[in-house]
Sequence to fold (117 residues):
Amino acid sequence: MKNLIIALFITLSSLSLKAQEKFNGVWKSEGTTYITTILASEYSVLSITNTSFDELKILKENILKQTGSELTTSIYNKDNGYAAEIEYKVLDDNTISSTYSTFPGEIYILKKINVNK
Fold:
């Protein structure tokens, strides 16, 4: 019984960790010039960078928490003083949602950009 419980725990843990890999990709949301690039391994999200070729800016996010198919980060733009926490959730393989602490109740949808076309 003890071995069964350990095996179940390992299985559930690996499924939760594998979910982080679903964040991996280049993402775009309507209404912004920024493209979000998320680099993730099968075990964790490694980095998040927001790039605007229109504004010639790059903003990095700091990863605060990762659990299953959810991710919390913080972002700071030194040019205008904007700071926020962002919560990301995987909706499916090609869609994630984000909510910003500065805009409570608003949900932004990001779609994966297929760069292999």
